[in-house]
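Input record, target 12 of the design panel.
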C-alpha cells in the first residue's frame, strides 16, 4: 500500500492557493445611460400624450389633451403631518436601500 509523502497536504494546498479564480464582474441589466434614456423617453411621451391630439389613434379621434388637470382647479392641501411622514418615509427607504446594497455587495464579493 502506497503512503503519501510527508509534505503531501502542504503541496496540495500550495497548488490550490496558486489557482486563479475567475473574477465575477457585476454588470447591471440596464446601465445608467439606459435608465437616462428610458426616463427621457417617458417624459417626452408623457408630454406629447397630454399636450397634443392624436388623430391617428386606434381608439378613434381622442383628444388626450382633454385629460389635463389644468381644466380643474388644482388646489391640493396636504397636511403638514403627512408631509413630514412622507419625508421621513423617503429618508428611511433610502437608508434601507443603501444598507441592502452594501449587504448585497459584501455577499457578492465574498462569493467571488
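The sequence produced for target 12 reads:
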Amino acid at each position: 500500500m502506497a503512503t503519501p509523502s510527508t509534505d503531501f497536504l502542504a503541496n496540495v494546498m500550495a497548488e490550490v492557493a496558486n489557482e486563479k479564480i475567475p473574477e465575477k464582474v457585476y454588470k447591471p441589466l440596464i446601465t445608467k445611460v439606459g435608465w437616462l434614456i428610458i426616463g427621457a423617453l417617458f417624459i417626452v411621451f408623457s408630454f406629447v400624450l397630454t399636450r397634443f391630439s392624436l388623430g391617428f389613434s386606434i381608439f378613434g379621434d381622442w383628444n388626450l389633451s382633454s385629460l389635463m388637470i389644468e381644466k380643474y382647479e388644482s388646489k391640493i392641501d396636504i397636511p403638514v403631518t403627512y408631509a413630514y411622514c412622507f419625508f421621513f418615509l423617503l429618508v428611511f427607504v433610502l437608508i434601507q436601500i443603501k444598507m441592502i446594497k452594501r449587504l448585497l455587495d459584501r455577499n457578492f464579493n465574498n462569493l467571488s
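The helical segments are 8-18, 32-51, 80-111.
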